[in-house]
């Protein structure tokens, strides 16, 4: 912090005697860096509350002591909390501004949200009274309830303005609106703490003093597959599910390595067109393919099944995005921070000033999974989906009982995708609805012939899929309806603050 604005306080840890610093007068708790005692500040002394886990062995580019700028105000990262439940975990970084104000930099579906405390007049509903999908007016703004969940503290570091009792479960509610705002209500305290924020790219924060790119020592993240005993490595700290590359078993890691490793055998493994681990360049960033899903959908009142593929992409600073391979083309989508406003009847949705038209509504089911995922993935997971479009821009909603997840993105040309992942030699396998013979105006004899040939090829592929060689054919792109399909969603990964 700048010289002269910092009011630093330091006292010996009641557990080991090491100095425990406080940079903000509003910080009431801290975690000793030496013995990991959680302590509370009481006047000019510290009282020990107990010992708390320190499990932050991750790839985060952030670290305590890093400085930055937000809306012209300088700040320092002084602490962090890791929260979670059986389905997900997320990290909240404690921010202290030079003027001693508080802020929070938290993870949101692989992106980052910068929030500040928000005072609310009147009382808030009890946690049990919140319902996903309903509207709520807060501070003059209208929000949609995006998630209602329970969480507990898993780990903590540094200086904190609050520290919920470790292991104690408390409620958290997420509100979002079509301006991209996100409001978090934390029921760990009374009255509940309210934080209002918006998504922010890390580069805009002008961060200095970030963690290096060196490979971490991570021996504790290896284990043997519970089905075939093959040696496996978990590469992402946030991983909740992964598949075994040796036997294709889908393994549940939500209880943590060393806990009960539940697994399910996946028959008829599907080979992704873009291999796991491949690195590509899209939208000026480097993305690694870390996960893959094969999904299917059915529209209400119809028996016909259509299918699509989703590749989970990871970038250290940008977080997670999804590369979607559907019958009508490729698209790149990411979880939306806000929640679009849906018109009565659900035919249109508005987000960040853009209006989208409903294209499809359908039930989606996960059929096959490979790689690592930051949420708990299971075969047979079902969501209710709605896909909207505005030209090349896309919007998708996935609904489950406890969460509504929106994703926003845009279409990609198939040649762009093949080139991005250096698979130009297989570019014909990437062609979808964006490059069909009927994509131009007008008909010619040549186009009619090409169309007939294309239909015959589809029929042959459907009849001969059992003999498909994935080395030379795109066996993973099952055909459903011509020109339809889903470009949608984020595969509802559970709630991540």
SSE layout:
Blueprint: E1 9-12, E2 19-22, E3 29-31, E4 37-42, E5 45-51, E6 67-70, E7 73-84, E8 89-97, E9 102-108, E10 111-117, E11 135-138, E12 141-160, E13 170-176, E14 181-186, E15 193-199, E16 222-224, E17 231-233, E18 241-243, E19 250-252, E20 262-264, E21 279-282, E22 285-298, E23 306-315, E24 319-326, E25 329-335, E26 341-342, E27 348-351, E28 354-373, E29 382-390, E30 393-399, E31 404-412, H1 414-420, H2 427-430, H3 445-463
Antiparallel strand pairs: 1-2, 3-4, 3-12, 4-5, 6-7, 7-8, 7-12, 8-9, 9-10, 10-15, 11-12, 12-13, 13-14, 14-15, 16-17, 18-19, 18-28, 19-20, 21-22, 22-23, 22-28, 23-24, 24-25, 25-31, 26-27, 27-28, 28-29, 29-30, 30-31
Written account of the structure:
This is DUF4178 domain-containing protein. Pfam families: DUF4178. Residues 63-200, 276-413 form the DUF4178 domain. The protein is mainly beta. The chain has 2 domains: 9-205, no CATH class; 268-420, no CATH class. It has helices spanning 414-420, 427-430, 445-463, and strands at residues 9-12, 19-22, 29-31, 37-42, 45-51, 67-70, 73-84, 89-97, 102-108, 111-117, 135-138, 141-160, 170-176, 181-186, 193-199, 222-224, 231-233, 241-243, 250-252, 262-264, 279-282, 285-298, 306-315, 319-326, 329-335, 341-342, 348-351, 354-373, 382-390, 393-399, 404-412. It has an 8-stranded antiparallel beta barrel. An 8-stranded antiparallel barrel has the order 22-23-24-25-31-30-29-28. A two-stranded antiparallel sheet has the order 1-2. The chain is globular, with a radius of gyration of 24 Å. The chain starts with 8 loop residues before the first strand and ends in a 34-residue tail after the last helix.
């Amino acid at each position: 912090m700048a010289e002269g604005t910092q009011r630093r306080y330091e006292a010996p840890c009641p557990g080991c005697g090491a100095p425990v610093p406080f940079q903000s007068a509003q910080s009431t708790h801290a975690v000793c860096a030496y013995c990991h005692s959680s302590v509370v500040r009481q006047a000019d002394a510290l009282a020990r509350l107990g010992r708390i886990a320190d499990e932050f062995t991750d790839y985060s580019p952030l670290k305590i002591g890093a400085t930055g700028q937000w809306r012209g105000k300088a700040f320092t990262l002084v602490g962090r909390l890791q929260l979670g439940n059986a389905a997900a975990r997320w990290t909240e970084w404690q921010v202290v501004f030079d003027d001693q104000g508080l802020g929070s930099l938290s993870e949101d579906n692989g992106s980052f949200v910068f929030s500040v405390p928000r005072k609310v007049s009147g009382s808030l509903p009890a946690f049990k009274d919140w319902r996903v999908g309903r509207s709520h007016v807060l501070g003059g703004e209208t929000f949609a309830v995006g998630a209602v969940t329970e969480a507990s503290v898993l780990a903590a570091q540094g200086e904190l303005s609050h520290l919920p009792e470790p292991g104690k479960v408390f409620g958290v509610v997420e509100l979002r609106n079509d301006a991209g705002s996100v409001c978090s209500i934390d029921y760990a305290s009374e009255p509940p703490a309210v934080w209002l924020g918006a998504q922010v790219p890390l580069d805009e924060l002008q961060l200095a003093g970030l963690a290096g790119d060196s490979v971490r020592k991570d021996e504790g993240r290896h284990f043997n597959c519970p089905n075939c005993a093959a040696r496996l490595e978990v590469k992402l700290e946030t991983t909740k599910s992964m598949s075994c590359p040796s036997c294709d078993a889908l393994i549940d890691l939500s209880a943590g390595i060393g806990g009960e490793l539940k697994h399910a055998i996946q028959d008829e493994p599907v080979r992704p067109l873009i291999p796991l681990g491949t690195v590509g360049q899209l939208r000026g960033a480097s993305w690694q393919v870390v996960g893959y899903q094969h999904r299917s959908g059915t529209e209400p009142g119809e028996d016909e099944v259509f299918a699509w593929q989703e590749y989970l992409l990871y970038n250290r600073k940008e977080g997670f995005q999804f590369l979607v391979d559907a019958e009508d083309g490729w698209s790149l989508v990411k979880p939306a921070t806000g929640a679009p406003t849906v018109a009565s009847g659900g035919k249109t949705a508005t987000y960040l000033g853009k209006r989208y038209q409903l294209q499809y509504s359908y039930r989606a089911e996960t059929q096959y999974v490979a790689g690592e995922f930051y949420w708990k993935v299971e075969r047979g997971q079902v969501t209710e989906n709605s896909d909207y479009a505005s030209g090349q821009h896309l919007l998708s909603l996935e609904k489950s009982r406890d969460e509504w997840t929106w994703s926003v993105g845009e279409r990609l040309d198939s040649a762009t995708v093949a080139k991005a992942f250096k698979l130009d030699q297989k570019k014909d396998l990437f062609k979808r609805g964006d490059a069909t013979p009927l994509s131009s105006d007008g008909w010619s004899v040549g186009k009619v012939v090409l169309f007939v040939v294309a239909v015959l090829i589809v029929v042959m592929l459907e009849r001969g899929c059992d003999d498909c060689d994935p080395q030379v054919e795109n066996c993973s792109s099952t055909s459903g309806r011509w020109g339809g399909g889903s470009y949608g969603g984020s595969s509802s990964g559970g709630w991540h603050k």
